[in-house]
Amino acid sequence: MKRDRATAVGIIANAMRGFDDNEISQMILEAKSAVHWPLRRLTSLFDEQIQRLRERGCPERIIEILKRQRGAVVTKAGKIIFKDNHIPFLPIIPFDVLSPRTQMPMVRSQWKEGRKHTEYRGSCLSDQLDPRRARDLIETPKSPYYIFDVCSGLGAKKDYPGNLKEVISKQGRSGFVSAELVAMGIHSDIFIGVNQCGWHDILALETEYRWNKYDKDAEVMQIGLYGAMPTFQHCSLWDFHEVDIAPSCASRGV
User: How many structural domains does the chain have?
Assistant: First the structure.
């Protein structure tokens, strides 16, 4: 179908009616960075993620649960317009299905320096971390599921966790629970971005950690680089650094 430039301009003008100049300028910038992924590319991404899980030792029974969602995931993602640095979707394995101790070795941090290439596998500080003390603050599916329109948080305005959570919520998005944080470590190059931008921890704003039920100050779960190794642990909000980042997603489940 041949594009009608005048019609397109009219549609845009009507859509922007009622907004001030600053809002319109911001909307134009966001529209220019928006990306619509073709179904073929989304299908390829889905298959790549499944293959990565298989290569890193994910049990086949979990892979089969995820594979059955292929059509629904690709169809839903095909209707979304993404910012160019967003990940269309990620497969999530709840910790009740596969423990963090089992999932963390699937996380990788890759550092490249010339021809030199070193790979680090994730770890879990079992002597310091008791998963029973962690609690998700939002309800998520019990079975392996997908999250959509994933933003790493890299490049976002730096702020404290409580403020970040409010900012993310106002955008109609949700911070991560800890299982989603691990999935991002498995399926993205976030630690390469972290290394380029400076020292970071990656925060799961929707999972709290309390030493006991009388503890008034909840901590958050995080993955940080320690000795160049991705490490899953909890962190006091008082230890928060302005270079920490908080990933988010637009929706969960198909």
Answer: 2
